[in-house]
Each structure stands twice: as structure tokens, then as C-alpha cells.
Amino acid sequence: MSKILARPPMNSQLQPISGRSGLPLVGHALAYIRDPLALMQENWDRFGEVSWFSMVGRKWIAVLGPDACQEVLQNKDRAFVNSDGWSVLIGPFFHGGLMLLDSEEHLRHRRIMQQAFTRTRIEKSVDALNPAIDSALDAWSPTDEFRAYTALKTLTLDLATDIFMGGVEGSTESEISSVKKAFVDCVQAATSLIRYPVPGTRWKRGLDGRRVLEEFFRRYLPARRNLETDDLFSVLCHIESEAGQRFSDDEVIDHMIFLLMAAHDTSTITLSTMMQYLGQHPKWQDRCRAESLALATSTPSYADLDGLSSLDLVMKECLRLVSPVPVMARRAVRDTRVRGHFVPAGTYVSVAPHFTHHMAQYWPDPERFDPERFAENRREDKVHRYAWEPFGGGVHKCLGMHFAGAEIKAIMHHLLTRFDWNVDADYVAPLDFTSLPFPSDGQPVDLRRRYSPVR
Ligand code: HEM
């Protein structure tokens, strides 16, 4: 049965938001985890662009379609905040991260952090990534049931500790592995159903993990302040905005913990989606491999990676098919409107690019893997400014998107030149959306060592 969220003020001409509460206690949480697209499609069919649904005792509005997403993300009247929205999901573990800040504070931090993602810095990161990827892939042992997602997750976490922390000279191997575990605990805690620090729960492990990460970064921070190197940890200690503002020690720590999270699962799922579809479409795999081999190097520069045009089309298509951040959280801090609907102060808002990416109105045959839709002669993504929005939009648009593209292409370049792989044409990844999407079977691929690596 549908109910309205709140009655609009008299004479406002605004529509109420209709929706449904789902199962007792859990609401639509299980339906979302299993198949968010089906849940959103049902809301779209029944209620249109703006509707409400319930998640573990809390009502959220679903903002669907590019027009509605654009309105919230552009946030012209500043009625929506990130902090109160994201905090209920990940706040205790990732507070202080750029995505959880608002208004002037957000602007100040973003202006400083932008200096960490300039073209020159990304070029240096690519130079550091190449040998790290190369040596990590030496450890891959191909099999016909190789768990690609699982291996990619380890790879990207290793790269993050290398590239983001510079290995942190002086730290021991056991310290680094406890940091990795603490980080994973924080990520997993964000989706815990029990949200109290009861011993033995994911929530408690997450809180403990946060403490481990804080202590670790605080211990090594003075050395990073003293010596400027190219890793992100050191960079955050030294950058300043054009107005000369810098991060305090606490701010560096908060940002490091958040950036590890922002960079890790998002890149991993993109890579694993690319491996899946390239495994199912050998012509595309050959085409991408031919471009990579033509570079004839195992140390491609950022510009080289930029020139891998087929890989770029594949990456964009995979970001469309499986959006690493399927929904973005916001909260209304005062009464406002979305597409003519009344949104009362306090409403939790989920903006859903993943749904837009599968709308047949904008993407012909949306479930088909068709990278050419992004080619210059088609540019289906241009049909609406917010038709393709895997990196969000507005003032919180992903700051790491160019870094992410470079890292993903660098890893794919190394994979394509070393291996070929095959995935059954009928395989459908069993995606779990408990947090960011991941294939619950670890994504098996038939992986073969094909070429001796280009040196
Ligand atoms: C395929 C990979 C990635 C995807 C799809 C992705 C997606 C997103 C999205 C959708 C947002 C906006 C969230 C919102 O508006 O609430 C975001 C924000 C952010 N991302 Fe990414 N991201 C990726 C990789 C990265 C990487 C590699 C980094 C850093 C190294 C990064 C750093 C950030 C930061 C700092 C923000 C917050 C920006 C702000 O609030 O001003 N992301 N990302």
C-alpha cells in the first residue's frame, strides 16, 4: 500500500512524495542488497522520479532519473548536505573525509586537496604504479577458475599501501597487514545491521579498526611532515591551496583513511567488471590488447594510457553497467523540493546514478555491453548532462576520477599484455550490494598466461 511521506504546505502547489515501507524492521534493505535495480524500477513504475522507501527503520527518498539526480546534486538552494546523509552509513569510520564535509569547510578542504590530484601528480603516480603492478602480477598463478575479483582486491589494496603511503618506511610487514585488516574492518562495519559496539560484531571491529588506522598514521606523520616525497600521505602533509591553507595533522589522518576507502573498492569493482566483459567479448579483448601491445612498454606514461582509446570505451561502458557507487546519500536540512515534490527538512535522500545508467529512455538496449555507445560518432552519454554520472556531479564530484582512470588503465594494460582470459558468455555476476557492489563468487575467469611481459 502506498503512503505519502509528508503533506506539502498549503498553497505550495508541490506534490507529496508517495512510497512504501516494505517488510517490518528491515524495510527494503534485503531487496536492495539483492537487486537494487529491480527495487528502483518498481518505485519508478509506481511513483515516478521521486518516491520513498524504507531501510532498517529509516525512510529514504529515491531520486531517480537524470533530471531529478541533477537537481539534487547541483543543490542550487543548498538544502541538501552530505554530512548528515553519508554519516548514517559510514560516519563512525570515515568521518572527516572530504565527501562528508559541507559548505565552506568542504570548499576549504577541496581547494587544498585538489593540489594532490594535478596532472603532474598523477603522472608521478603512474610511474610508481607500473613497477608495483608488474611485481604484484608476478604472483598471479593462472587457473581455469581464477577468482579475478578476489585477486584484484588484494592487488588494489597493496597498491594503495604502496602508492598512498609510500610503503611507510620503517613500518614492519605485520604493521602493514594489521593496517590493511583495520581498513577492511572499517569498510565492512559500514554495512553492519547491528550498529552498537557489541563485542564480536562487525560494528565493534570497525571502531577498533578506525583506532588502529588513526594510531598508525599519527605515528608516521612527523616523518612525512619532515620529508616531502611523492606518496599521497606525504603530499597531503605538504600541499597548500592557492590561498596558502594547509591540512592540520588530524585532517591529514582523516583524509588518508577516507581516501583509502574512496579509491579501493570503486577501482576494484570497475576492474573486475572490465575483466568479466572482456572475457565474454574476445573481440574487444583483442582490440584492447592490440592497442596495449602497440605501446610496446611495461612502463606506459599517463599520456600513453590516455591514448588507449578502446580501453577507455570499455571502462566507460563498465562504469555504466555496474556503477561502483550505485547511490549517493544526502539529507535535507530545510524544507525543499525535488522535481515539484515536497521534501521536508530531515529527509534522507538517495541519488541513484545506477538506475539512470540502465534507463532504456537514455541507453538503447541498456543491458547490452556496447562500448561503442561512447564513441565520438554516437556519444549516447551526451543525450543528457546526467545520463552518465558514475563519478557524481556538483561540488562533490569525484576528485580522484582521473587518478582512478589512470590506475584502472595501468592495471588493465599490464593484464592484457601478460594474460588472456575467457568468461562464459552466459555468466551473470552474482552482485551483492550490501555496500559497494561486488561479485559474491569472487568472479571466476579462465585465465591463461599468454605473452611474456613486455619489458
Ligand atoms: C572508479 C573509481 C571511482 C568511482 C566510480 C568514484 C565515484 C565517486 C562518487 C560517485 C563520488 C561522489 C559522492 C557524492 O557526491 O556523495 C566520489 C567522491 C570522491 N571520490 Fe571517488 N570514485 C572513484 C575513485 C576514486 C579515487 C581513486 C579517489 C582518490 C584517490 C577518489 C576520491 C574521491 C573523493 C576525495 C571524493 C569526495 C569529493 C568531494 O566530496 O568533494 N575516488 N567518488
Strand order of the largest sheet: 3-4-10-7-5
Which CATH class? Mainly Alpha
Number of strand elements: 14
- The whole-number mean of residue pLDDT values reads 94
Which CATH architecture? Orthogonal Bundle
**Unreliable sequence segments:** none
Shape descriptor: globular
Instruction: From the 3D structure, determine the CATH topology.
Output: Cytochrome p450
Detailed description of the structure:
With 455 residues, the protein is an alpha+beta fold. It has a single domain, classed as Orthogonal Bundle (Cytochrome p450). It is built from 16 helices and 14 strands. The strands form five sheets. The chain has a five-stranded mixed beta sheet, sandwiched between helices. Helix 12 packs across helix 16 (401-418). The model has no long low-confidence stretch (mean pLDDT 94). It binds protoporphyrin IX containing FE. Protoporphyrin IX containing FE (HEM) is lined by residues 82, 98-99, 110, 259, 262-263, 266-267, 270, 324-325, 328, 390-392, 396, 398-400, 403-404. Keywords: Heme, Iron, Metal-binding, Monooxygenase, Oxidoreductase. This is Cytochrome P450. Belongs to the cytochrome P450 family. It holds the Pfam family p450.
